[in-house]
Predict the structure.
Amino acid sequence: MPRWVTLLVASLSVSSCVSTGNLGLVTKSGTNPGALLSEPHAYTDLGPARGNACRFFLIAVVPWGDSTLSAAVEQALAKSGGDALLNVTTSSSLYGFVPIYNVLSFTCTDVKGTAIRLEPASAPPPAHAATP
């Protein structure tokens, strides 16, 4: 069998798709973003963090796993002990093996960013009494 036919059959049996995006700030799912943005917060830079979450499908019927962005962020923050990620790059990918029959396929979400730990909001300065 010619080599190009073998390559064609191999490439048709595996397919994939990838998309990427950028975000400025991503927090844990339990964080109140309104409160976070309405008050100034100091933070500690914990360095680079990375997380990955995947969901698998067997014969396009039996799913298991969690490939959501929040699951990937939770994993990245659990490793670093942070509360949020700054300058986040996210990518989602879908892979299929023997795609015509959907024997096995999976989708994964990857996040990369700088982990930070938020410090408690600083108390407002005391009001000064007006002098007569």
